[in-house]
Prior knowledge:
With 647 residues, this protein is α+β, with helices and mostly antiparallel strands. The protein has 4 domains: 2-229, Aminohydrolase, N-terminal nucleophile (Ntn) domain (Glutamine Phosphoribosylpyrophosphate, subunit 1, domain 1), CATH 3.60.20.10; 232-383 and 503-567, Rossmann fold (3-Layer(aba) Sandwich), CATH 3.40.50; 387-497, no CATH class; 578-646, no CATH class. The longest helix is centred in the last third of the chain and has 22 residues, at 625-646. The two termini are 31 Å apart. The mean pLDDT is 92.
Amino acid sequence: MCGIAGFLTWRETPPDLLATRVKAMTDAIAYRGPDADTRWVDAGAGLALGHRRLAIVDLTPTGAQPMLSASERFVICYNGEIFNAAEVARDLPGVNWRGTSDTEVLLEACAAWGVEKAIPRFIGMFAFALWDRKERVIWLVRDRLGIKPVYWSKQNTDEGPALLFGSELKALTAYPGWAPQLDPTALAGYLRYGYVPAPRSIHSNVQKLEPGHILRLDPDGRETLTCFWDLRQIARDGMRNRDTRSEAEQLEVLHDLLKDAVKRRMMADVPLGAFLSGGIDSSTVVALMQAQSTQAVKTFSIGFQDKDFNEADHARAVAKHLGTDHTELVIDPAHARDVIPDLPFMYDEPFSDSSQIPTYLVSKLAREQVTVSLSGDGGDEIFAGYVRYLGIDRVWNGVGPLPVPLRRAGAGMLQMLSPDAWDTLLSPVPARYKPKFIGDKIHKGAAILAEADADAMYGALVSQWDGEAMVSGAGPRAAQDTTLADDLPETIARLRYRDMTTYLPDDILTKVDRASMAVALEARVPLLDHRVVEYAWTLPPDRLLDGNQGKKLLRQVLYKYVPRAMVERPKTGFGMPVGDWLRGPLKDWAGDLLSDASLRRDGLIDPGPVQQRWQEHLSGRRNWQHALWTVLMFQAWRARWASAAAG
Length: 647
């Protein structure tokens, strides 16, 4: 795991100047790789590759990067891990291996077979740049699910055009002549979803390479973007070729796939552990780790003083049952206040998933003992675990045939009571029969009743603001893909697909990457092994859904190791009590950033809707914590990076 950065001008440039400039880029992301800082330049092409190393496999100099191929034709600068490097190496006869790193295997495979043919052979997470010294072609590649990031930009500087790339935006900002321009359309997308949807970034002249894609740039400036792993095709083919074996047989297939995915990700030459929340996903990963380990696995969890968010007791119970070496930290508002000032720097562009704070804190906790930590991220998207999937499906099936005016009237009736009033009214209902924060969920559900179809309902449910209406100069909202239903006729399948191509890479995996790499911790996500993902798409709906909950088959894998009663409970998620904190210890900080004067300073966001929701939140009539946090994180980001630009 590392940080990469570089640039290409296709102009002859003094090597010392190339080295100095790329070092400034890697210095900006030094925390991603504290073990080494190296670079490689091609003066004739005006190319520089920079690498910050976090040594995980082959800790010797033979694993150092940027790495030159045995033929000396290709150079690679790589961030990630390949988990089947040994098998691929065996398919490359005649190579005189210099070391045992996966980097060398990746490099020699690309040299032998070409990038497009080599990449599909690998199991892993990766983002890399590959330079062909002979043809003067550069490739940028990102893994199938988007676990590892890569930003790129074609800049017109005073010295001429240049291609810039890096693991994070801040690496690009260190290049001379960097002139970022905020993209109003990207800002509108951010306000709607809480993250900037790819391929856009917050800057109009910078893009994110999308998951499963290869970008090739030729000396004449021609760009060729190809997709080497198409999730839409994977999903369509999987649903058309369902696994028709018995449930017991399917369970064993999934069990074997998950065991192998976890075992491969336990490969490391440094201490290794796992995040454990006590939920289905992380408990499954830890159970499979412990079953394949000769010593107690180190596990780490975060708890909250607020019992509505605290899952530390559940994690502790699972850890005790499995026999792990468990460490936990209970956090309070002071922890959040300490982390908040660093978030804009950590994330480079606006990002507002409030679980970014506990994710950072659990990463910091783990880094005190290990250098690699496995995570359970991805299980909800792959195995239909989100409550909203089944909820949308059932709501649409129930109200879709009704006239829109009648649906609007029903929504108004549901919203007559405040979320708190609903919580009180339904308090006698046992917890196992209702989700947490039921009042807030009723209000969210009511707000989508008048939408045209299930997909539009889902879009409204995951939207926080009408960003396009609130941002001056924003382009129109991207049109919904109306052809998706032809490939994925099942509603829940479409919602899973949408999440796996947007929310998963742009929110969940971005959060995990930035939070973990901020403390030089490598996070690995075995549930996102592409073989597991591909198999999950072949499972019939009744293997994913069981009554009112998803992840049916995944749960059965876990039950082989942990008693059902220990992990079965309403889903909480890795959130934190932001709503209460904004009314309490974070009120002054939030009030300053959400003030009319602060919002009008840049003239970017309409302050009216923000002020209304802020006052409603303070009064307790509504819980607008997610929407307000989104604006707060933009305001904090704007202050941090405007200050940096001025300085």
